[in-house]
Design a protein that fits this description.
single chain, about 500 residues, alpha+beta, 6-stranded mixed beta sheet, 3-stranded antiparallel beta sheet, 19 helices, 13 strands, about 50% helix, globular, binds protoporphyrin IX containing FE, endoplasmic reticulum, transmembrane, iron
């Protein structure tokens, strides 16, 4: 090795050491700064292992705003729900939603879109999920849920069947959701085409689920060599299953899909990249509904009083209907809109299990006003993180016994929806935030709510559902999934079900 190379290597090593040991200091007006003890990495390991416990500890140490070093990035964490509005309504030029989304798009799904203009994409996609289109989606979802739910199938047979509640809920919602957005085998629905829809959507679900399990590691860039091979294989398979050429033959494709494909064509995205974007969208649109429905059903099965109240609310719908439930082709919107008890149960289960990170890139040096009058300066290039799961959702000052499921927590004594929750004596605007808030609040919220409610309705009306071991504890969370939306359980919950007579 020549002296020049040795000298070069030494210089690079020195530079690296200098970078690793150069410690940022807190400037006047900035939030408390905590760099942890490991240079550059900071708190990356603790954060990745169990973000909720780590952030709880940091909140006790520093209060409701602080900056931590996480894998070379400075992340300012804000945990005061009264101050969230000053973040979620900031213009993109100051706090940018998309920079981190684009980073994850690339890292997890290998998607790179030329001339990507998120505002343009959003303005094209928004109308496809609202108003008339929402009604069309809701109706298609009901039909597809009936295709997928074992009740209508020969294989359901009679007698009890055993399964896992998580698998049951996730599989039904993702498969029906996939058929609703990406289209079905052939119109009109025949027994044969429905059987094909069941087989194909099961293939999509099982392949998707293998990728879903690798997601936290993919996002953190911590895949083992074996995991990498597996991720590569699974993605390749999904890109084939969802290729534009394959989707071109499908019937009843949603307006959402048509508009998205047209948009991708217009901005010059290749067919190969379109398939990748469609896999990304499968996750973005379907990754949370199944887990949400799982927790909701599990809380009901563990709380007989809550289950009885929900059943009692649904009973009149069934008795007033002109047809038996097995023949109903839609669930009228006015029925979906008049179930305050089920709505309260949904809000309560989302309060306990929805744990997305609301992340923004600080696009310019700025002053962040807090609701209590304090003001903190944020540095351009840092990341800002809200974690509503800790506060408001699990905050004991807002919710008494915040760990306990109370089915009527979001109901007033007169049975109407409760919206009054307080912290520091002040009414909260954002008291649960499973859908985010502000400029980037979830666009699919109404569709997701109606889909989950239809699934719960069908599951309760058509089946007797029981926990195999009624005394079993509610499973712990898979702690690696904080930040991705709905939490998933560490293990599945065995249930048995049978068709109701
Ligand atoms: C239980 C199901 C769902 C949950 C819990 C959920 C939650 C969320 C959250 C937390 C955000 C990000 C907010 C932020 O960072 O500020 C978001 C954004 C979004 N969601 Fe959902 N979502 C669900 C289902 C859906 C569905 C079914 C669709 C579409 C069919 C959808 C479409 C979107 C879109 C397009 C955005 C981005 C909005 C933007 O760019 O401004 N979501 N969702």
């Amino acid at each position: 090795m020549s002296w020049a190379v040795v000298f070069g290597l030494l210089a690079a090593l020195l530079l690296l050491l200098l970078l690793l040991t150069r410690r940022r200091t807190r400037r006047p007006g900035e939030p408390p700064l905590d760099l942890g003890s490991i240079p550059w990495l900071g708190y990356a390991l603790e954060f990745g292992k169990d973000a909720a416990s780590f952030l709880t500890r940091m909140k006790e140490k520093h209060g409701d705003i602080f900056t931590v070093l996480v894998g070379g990035r400075y992340v300012t964490v804000l945990l005061d729900p009264h101050s969230y509005d000053s973040v979620v309504w900031e213009p993109r030029t100051r706090l940018d939603f998309h920079a981190y989304a684009v980073f994850l798009m690339e890292r997890i799904f290998d998607v790179q879109l030329p001339h990507y203009n998120p505002s343009d994409e959003k303005s094209k996609m928004k109308p496809t999920l609202l108003h008339r289109e929402l009604q069309a989606l809701t109706e298609a979802m009901y039909t597809n849920l009936r295709t997928i739910l074992p009740g209508d199938t020969v294989e359901a047979g009679s007698g009890w069947h055993e399964t896992g509640l998580f698998d049951f809920s996730y599989s039904c919602l993702l498969r029906a959701g996939y058929l609703t957005l990406y289209g079905v085998e052939a119109p009109p629905w025949t027994q044969e085409s429905q059987a094909q829809d069941r087989v194909h959507s099961a293939d999509v679900f099982h392949t998707f689920r293998q990728l879903d399990l690798l997601l936290p590691k993919l996002a953190r860039g911590s895949l083992s060599v074996g995991d990498k091979d597996q991720a590569c294989r699974v993605k390749g398979r999904l890109w084939k299953l969802l290729s534009p050429a394959r989707l071109a033959t499908r019937a009843h494709r949603s307006k959402w899909l048509e508009s998205y494909l047209q948009h991708l064509e217009e901005v010059g995205v290749s067919e190969e990249m379109q398939a990748r974007a469609l896999v990304l969208q499968l996750w973005a649109t379907q990754g949370n509904m199944g887990p949400a429905a799982f927790w909701l059903l599990l809380f009901l099965l563990k709380n007989p009083e809550a289950l009885a109240a929900v059943r009692e609310e649904l009973e009149p719908v069934l008795s007033r209907a002109e047809q038996p439930i097995s023949q109903m082709t839609t669930l009228p919107q006015k029925v979906l809109d008049s179930t305050p008890i089920l709505d309260s149960v949904l809000s309560e289960s989302l309060r306990l299990t929805a744990a997305p990170f609301i992340t923004r890139e600080v696009a310019a040096d700025l002053a962040l006003p807090m609701a209590d009058g304090r003001e903190f300066t944020l540095r351009r290039g840092d990341r800002l993180l809200l974690f509503p799961f800790l506060s408001p959702q699990k905050d004991p000052e807002i919710y008494t016994d915040p760990e306990v499921f109370k089915y009527n927590r979001f109901l007033n004594p007169d049975g109407s929806e409760k919206r009054d929750f307080y912290k520091n004596g002040k009414r909260l605007k954002n008291y649960i935030m499973p859908w985010g808030a502000g400029h980037n609040q979830c666009l699919g919220r109404a569709y997701a709510v109606s889909s989950i409610k239809q699934f719960v309705f069908l599951a309760l009306a058509r089946f007797d559902l029981e926990l195999t071991s009624p005394d079993m504890e509610i499973p712990e969370f898979d702690l690696s999934r904080y930040g991705f939306g709905l939490m998933q359980p560490e293990r599945d919950v065995p249930i048995r079900y049978r068709l109701r007579p």
